[in-house]
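Lab notebook: predicted structure, single chain.

Context: the supervisor wants predicted structures on file for every construct in the current expression panel, including those that have not yet been purified. This is the next one on the list. No modifications to the sequence; it matches the entry in the shared construct table.
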Amino acid sequence: QEARDLGISRADYEFVEKGLMFGFKAREEQAPATTGKVSQDAVKKELAKIKLPKGLKVIVFDKLSGSLAEKVSAAGHDPKKVRGGVLPDGTVMIVAENHTDLNDVKQTIAHELIGHIGVENLLGEAGMNALVKKINSQYGSVWKLAENLGVLDDVRAAYASAKRIGKTEEQALGTAVREMIAHTEEARADKG
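Prediction complete. Output recorded below exactly as produced.
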């Protein structure tokens, strides 16, 4: 019943539920007072306009509730603020109800598909580690570059979340850089 209430199949529900147990990266924004302006069908129509990478699974929820909302909360995120996320296996999830309009949906798609999936697959773990070292040597720190790009709060939150779940300093800085890239890409989508 829960899966049906969220507008997804039981198989997708169980798949996401299991994936959330291993953590996920989320686009979490302060939800406006009036959410729910975007329907699940509208998000699916936006996704249909994009040529997705072969094999990429994208699950669009109407909202997060029940055990999924509990698992998102346990991971340190507010289910009413999470607009999208990437599960450890690369599955992208988008929460329709938490978006204000289609432009907000486009920002989430850019954040998750280009900022996380695209860059991470392109660079790989070794490439991301090298990028962190390069940023630290050229800009003085990840924090200084994030501040210059206007995404410091988001980057700090990603770093803190990574540390909270037991990641090493190097892994947490990698998470922070991934979020910096994703938020920068999201901002580009906003500019058309």
